């Protein structure tokens, strides 16, 4: 058995709280399974929190404070983190942003909107204004900046191997004016080619299939269990229960099998971009 890898409390804020959690849990004589018993979370997630790889969700913080009698220590930390995350990243997605920079593989299915890692600022702005039309201009731009900051992912030499599957309707539906739509599709093609990633389109003719209604992301890590993340309007869920993660991976494999080949998919994206570009020039 390999020696246990203890977190360095000075490495980061998550590492500090992870090390403190492990100390308190072991001082109480509890195993990972015993501590999460009665919560809606699993031991693998708790293990990753202790290693400083993830932040702690609020419901788990409340449960742990109660079990370890910490006087609300972890709940107060979560409240501070959530307040910071309101600057631009949805609370339910913040842990996923932290995880994607540690992942070795990201497999993503996007039936409704282009994935965040592939979006242009014009596309993000349109999504924000469509989903939250009541926001003021400054609030919109704050959300746009937060989303675009995620694109630093592609600048990392060790970024995860990315495999995305998009529904064909995304490139056929003019979410933006023609010129901006062309920019969005050209951006996707450039990112995929320059990063040696994989992109597939699921044809519109495929009427039904697994996980057709919501976004799905499966992430693998070098030293932690694979997780799945599902998202719908205004909500998302990180799934670490191994049997359920396996089911989601099987569903993703079925989508991959039904999708068009990668090179043909990229050719369709680039062809659609040219079509929108021509349309924009004709309007001018």
TrEMBL record:
UniProt xrefs under Pfam families: DUF5753
Protein species of origin: Streptomyces yunnanensis
Ranges where the DUF5753 domain occurs: 93-271
Top-level division of the source organism's lineage: Bacteria
Coiled coil: none
Entry protein name: Helix-turn-helix domain-containing protein
